[in-house]
Amino acid sequence: MRQAFTLAVALVIAGGLLASSVDAQPQLKNKTYHFGTHPARTNITFVSEADLETIHGYTNKVQGSIKVDANGTKASGTLRVGVGSLKTGIDLRDEHLRSDQWLDAKRYPYVQLQLVSATETQDPRKWSYVANLTIKGVTRQIKGTARISAIPDRLGKSLGGGSWVRVRTKFDVKITDYGVKIPQQVGPKVSDTWSVGIDLYGTTAAPSR
Amino acid sequence: MIKLLKIGAIAAVVVAVIVWPVAWYMDSTAQTVHFISPLDEAAVEVNKFTFEEDAEENPTDEDIIAIYGSKSGSDPERIVFPDDSKIIRPDERKSLTLYAIEGDSRPLQSQFVFYMTRVVSIGAAVAAFGLILLLSLLKRRRAQPAAA
Fold it and tell me: ipTM value of the model?
């Protein structure tokens, strides 16, 4: 009798824990998060590690939104980054990056990431996603895992209006797959694979136009 | 002409050698840092709260870096003459040194200093060798008519 009671209590506790882990971020449900509203909380980095040097590039300008479904387990949306906003720390290098040989900002002013699917994993803070990444007019599919942290509303108030979420992910981009030709003379300075890091705070408060 | 070549050769040898102590001196000012794109103060405060609330038993360096900003690059890097105002030492892990990269400024990397040192040193050594070769040729040529 005692054993049966202990077992029943254990099952109730385990069930409760399981339910809470599955639904650990209920505040994400049925919300649309807008990104790029606060540049100081918008970080997209890209790093090229080559023999001669490591180039650290970044931008804090992004446009787009991500909508989470009513169950809080799936998401869709698009993010766009202006090629003209990419900075590497040297103006001349930024100019080269925008040139037609590299990202061709005149013809292709944006780099775009469109979610094909985004699904919560067993760990509700981690979501696996498939996205179409478009650079220089070439679209290729990428896969990855993003860390999604819903910021409790009591804390989010200090960040500004709306409900807040932080999204972080990393993936590698082989730039030669996107029609970029690395000139021979810069060979040892630039790697053909760039490590991209996305760290964005999104809010449900619609951005001011 | 020979005097000029002698001065050139000596200068090239000096350059080939002296760039190394200069590079080592520069590297002696270097710090090993993790580059981050920093977050604003409000976000850092929120992250500190959530970090404490969700405290994992063994937080990784990445977890701590994420409080302050977005890590750029995979490994820490050595930078020379770092700007102290851009250095962040997290209270959560004093052994970590973060370096905020913002706007158009980037610190000089040791990796780049030593690469340039190698290029300059090898270039100067080749120049010195060429000049010495030329010198000996010229001297031999001058010596030949005298012997004849």
Answer: 0.75
- Residue among B70, B106, B111 whose CB faces A89 most closely: B106
Measured CA to CA, the distance from residue A9 to residue A11 in angstroms comes to: 5
> What is the predicted pLDDT for the residue at B26?
95
Q: What is the pLDDT of residues B74-94, one digit of tens each?
A: 789 999 999 999 999 999 998
Give residue limits of the domains in chain A. 26-203
Put simply, the answer to whether B115 touches A51 (Cβ < 8 Å) is yes
Maximal CA-CA distance, chain A = 81
Low-confidence stretches of chain A (pLDDT beneath 50): 12-23
The answer to whether the CB atoms of B103 and A151 lie below 8 A apart is no
CA distance A138 to A179: 7
* Average pLDDT value over all residues in chain B: 89
CATH of domain A26-203: 2.40.128.110
Could you tell me which residues of chain A have a Cβ less than 8 Å from any Cβ in chain B? 38, 40-41, 43, 45, 47, 49, 51-54, 56, 58, 60, 87-91, 149, 151-152, 155-156, 158-159, 168, 195, 197, 199, 201
